[in-house]
Amino acid sequence: MKKPPCPNASCSTTASVIHHGCYKTRSGKRRRYRCRSCGKTFCSTTATPYHRLHHQRSTFDQVAHLSVEGVNKSAIARLKRLSWNTVARWLEKAARCCRRFNHEQINELGVPEIQADEIRTIVGDKDSPVWVFTTLDVWSRLWPSTVVGRRSYRNTYALLKDTVSRMRPECFPLIVTDGFEYYAKVVWRLFGRACVYGQVIKTRRNDRIVKVERRRVIGATWRFEQALTQSEDSSKLNTSFIERLNLTIRQGSSYLYRRTICHARSKNRLEDQLELLRCYYNFVRSHRSLRRGRQAVTPAMQAGLTKRPLTLREIFSSRILPLSPNAIAHVFTGITAKLRLAA
Ligand SMILES: [Zn+2]
Fold first, then answer.
1. What spacing in Å lies between the alpha carbon of 191 and ligand 1's midpoint?
2. Could you tell me the distance, in angstroms and rounded to a whole number, from the CA of residue 32 to the centre of ligand 1?
3. pLDDT tens digit sequence for 90-132
4. Above pLDDT 90, what percent of the chain?
5. pTM
């Protein structure tokens, strides 16, 4: 078996690792390793969510899987015969791993068309609504970024800035959003005249859409026509793809069901759940509208990030490798904190 790299952040990934005896667990013997450069000993699960898990890894995977299929924590605890606190702790660990995985893996996107939208939900004492901002790369159906918070300029900027940081520098996409006031300001700040930006404004009456208005905000008419001709998915300005993603997100998180008693008790819990869901949506679950012959394709495969659908086991087994201080701020406290540092 290939020896795992040293999990010590100050060691290089090529540091020499040797076998260092064994230790016993309920399910048998496990090998220990020692790093020759820093002298630290570790096992194959060190720095993964499986470390010191007193259950089988498959149980951990099943708990994460049930959670991203929209089962709430109490139901998971009853189904798997675990305590609620164990389920909550495991999901927190899984989310931490997924946050890092998303951050490391979603990069260098060639994004010809972006759609952005928000989902309204409640957190904690239900007093003020919280919004889940999302973006979607339409061509690959990849969900690159998400931000949770108030419907403010700051959060809108954080969302699009994060999406832009994951794109190739030469990318100047077609962007479509709803009529929320800050999108136009943020898009202008990030791209200037280099992109094509339009809005789709829907007027509803008695829960029915009575009017759809399509506005060209940045870019001349011929540039819109050119962008839409090049697009494989859209023939006119629309937000259908992001609205479909929002539906998938609502189905995949028990916190976001409508009229639920299971709303998130804190913003961090909601963010954790969304990181887990984003990882599952992008890398694990195959997308029905993306197919290559008989092969099911995940958004990450379509975007060229992976060669095949991954499993939750593979994601959770991946090591937390050393990150730069900036990246650590980004990964572990969310992008809004990073903006605060930069200001
Ligand atoms: Zn080391």
1. 43
2. 13
3. 999 999 999 999 998 998 888 889 999 999 988 887 777 899 9
4. 46
5. 0.86
Distance 41 CA to ligand 1 centre (A): 8
pLDDT digits (tens, 9 = 90+) for 286-341: 998 888 888 889 999 999 898 889 999 999 988 654 433 343 333 333 333 333 33
Going along the chain from its start, the domains and CATH numbers come out as 1-44 (no CATH), 113-265 (3.30.420)
Q: Could you give the strand order of the β-sheet that contains 174-177, starting from the edge strand earlier in sequence?
A: 146-149, 129-137, 113-122, 174-177, 196-205, 208-218
The model's pLDDT over 255-291, given as tens digits with 9 standing for 90+, comes to 888 877 778 888 889 999 999 999 999 999 999 888 8
Q: SS3 for the chain, per residue?
A: CCCCCCCCCCCCCCCCEEEEEEEEECCEEEEEEEECCCCCEEECCCCCCCCCCCCCHHHHHHHHHHHHCCCCHHHHHHHHCCCHHHHHHHHHHHHHHHHHHHHHHCCCECCCEEEEEEEEEEECCCCCEEEEEEEEECCCCECCCEEEECCCHHHHHHHHHHHHHCECCCCCCEEEECCCHHHHHHHHHHHHHHCEEEEEEEEEECCEEEEEEEEEEECCHHHHHHHHHHCCCCCCCCCHHHHHHHHHHHHHCHHHCCCCCCCECCHHHHHHHHHHHHHHHHHHCCEEEEEECCEEECHHHHCCCCCCCCCHHHHHHCCCCCCCHHHHHHHHHCHHHHHHHHC
Better-predicted residue by pLDDT, 122 or 67: 67
Percent of the chain with pLDDT over 70: 92
Q: What is the distance in A from the centroid of ligand 1 to the CA of 60?
A: 28
Give the pLDDT score at 157: 94
**42 CA to centre of ligand 1 in angstroms:** 9
Write out the residues surrounding ion ligand 1, Cβ under 5 A.
6, 8, 11, 15, 35, 37-38
